[in-house]
Amino acid sequence: MDTFLNVLQTIGIILLVILFFNLMIFVHELGHFLAGKWRGAYIDRFQIWFGTPIWSKTIKGVRWGIGWLPLGGFVSLPQMEDMEKVEGACKDLPKDLKPLKPLDKIIIAAAGPLFSLLLAYVFAFIVWGVGKPVAELQGTRIGHFAPDSPAAASGLLPGDRILAIDGRPVTKWAGNMEGVRELVAMSEGEKINFTIARPQADGSEQTLEIASSFRIPETAWWQRTALRQVGILPAAPTVVGAILPGSPAEQAGLKPGQTITAVNGTPVYTHFAVVEVSEKAEPMELTLKNEDGTTTTVNITPVIPTNWQDKPGATAILGMVWANPDAAIEFEHPSPQAQVNQSLKWMKDTLAKVCAPGSSIGMEHLSGPVGIGNHMYQMFQAGDGVGWRLVLWFAVVLNVNLAVLNILPLPVVDGGHVVLGFIEMLRGKPVSGKFLDWIMFGFVFLLLFFFIFVTFKDVGDMVGGEETPKLPAPIFSTPQN
């Protein structure tokens, strides 16, 4: 029964994602449709998705349909530029069809992006009311890094608090493309410059400038190229959780709720540092902060559990579970304009990094419908009222992107038609001819190629990677009296 319910939930979420996509396409094309009606244009078809219709119906002289190729949608307006190679031939055109004025063409073309922007504001007003879940990793203190990482070679140390990256102030580890993780990934040049505050023995902090190299992990050929990493992990409380029976942690007297602050006299800022030392299977001295604020020191020797000793790759452990207290979910209520402004900034920053010669981010890191749909699918799965709120907020971002990308002065898209309208206004006659037709068709070919390329990468990221092998639950030998 659980499997059946999970399948139903998955199907339901997929249908919701498809519904969201088609709602955005429909509203965008509705802008063209209503503007065309207003300006007296002849409308032949209103179609969601391209290609031969898998469903169509004529209502009041307009053929409404759904195509087989999920690449967007269109409203066929024969009095605009000739789009027969893209949209297909129009049937039974009126013989007395008069050309549209340039201003009419500009208004009709611009109406689609305008309606997408208006839909973004509609979603933004809803998010303003219901709230946007805050899912950001706070704090910029370095918790740990591997000895062979670029960060270790640079001179960065656990406990350093990152103030800025390449001159850009940073206040959180991840989130909103403004955290440590994002700024490292989007950095340019051969080195990444960190401004850090290093804790001193007297409690003060010393400000330092440190340049670090980076690495780009290898990925399979069908996946996207990985982004820049320096190998640092954020600081996090090292709070002891459940203690396993018969374990070294139980024998040493560790208690749930205690916090490990140092190992062998060296301060630790994340449990990864504790695990790294414990895997050596050597005696350890742990400095513990009790829940009442007092400090305790214990000696402990990690061991390999009895039922792990013949398993390849098994390492010594302390025999406890790290506490992971649930952080209270907070909901921000940014104004609609603030949400739209944020979306515009993200878009500007992303395109700037794609075009920057010293950046490691390229066209392959942009997502198509499959990648975006998968992202929305993951959002929908979040419970406690978080998922649907995240999707509503993401819809603001998507519609702003749809509006901006379509108003760009490029062939085929709405911005290209606006430019042609202005040119016609200045010349006194429309731009036409086979040359323009082939430019339009060529750009459609490029868009189709890009769509196939990013879709291939989207699918590669979804199916790539091997599952990490898992060991059975540890069992310790209890000492005999």
The percent range for strand residues is 15-25%
Helix fraction?
Answer: 25-40%
Separate helix tally = 12
What overall geometry do the principal axes of the alpha carbons give? Answer: elongated
> What is the number of independent domains?
3
| Helix and strand run | HEEHHEEEHEEEHEEEEHEEHEEEEHHHHH
Radius of gyration, in angstroms, nearest whole number: 29 Å
Write the layout of secondary structure elements.
Elements: H1 2-38, E1 45-59, E2 62-76, H2 84-87, H3 102-130, E3 132-133, E4 137-138, E5 142-145, H4 150-154, E6 161-165, E7 168-169, E8 172-174, H5 180-185, E9 192-199, E10 205-212, E11 232-234, E12 240-243, H6 248-252, E13 259-263, E14 266-267, H7 271-278, E15 284-289, E16 295-300, E17 320-322, E18 331-332, H8 336-355, H9 369-380, H10 387-407, H11 414-427, H12 434-463
Antiparallel strand pairs: 1-2, 3-18, 4-8, 5-11, 6-7, 6-9, 9-10, 12-17, 13-14, 13-15, 15-16
Helix pairs in contact: 1-3, 1-9, 3-8, 3-10, 3-11, 8-10, 9-10, 9-12
Give structural notes.
It is a single chain. This protein is of the alpha+beta class and 481 residues long. It has three domains: 2-131 and 374-452, no CATH class; 137-234, PDZ domain (Pdz3 Domain, Roll); 240-322, Pdz3 Domain. It has twelve helices and 18 strands. It has a four-stranded antiparallel β-sheet. The radius of gyration is 29 Å and the shape is elongated. 31% of the residues are buried. The mean pLDDT is 88.
Which keywords apply here?
481 residues; alpha+beta; 18 strands; 4-stranded antiparallel beta sheet
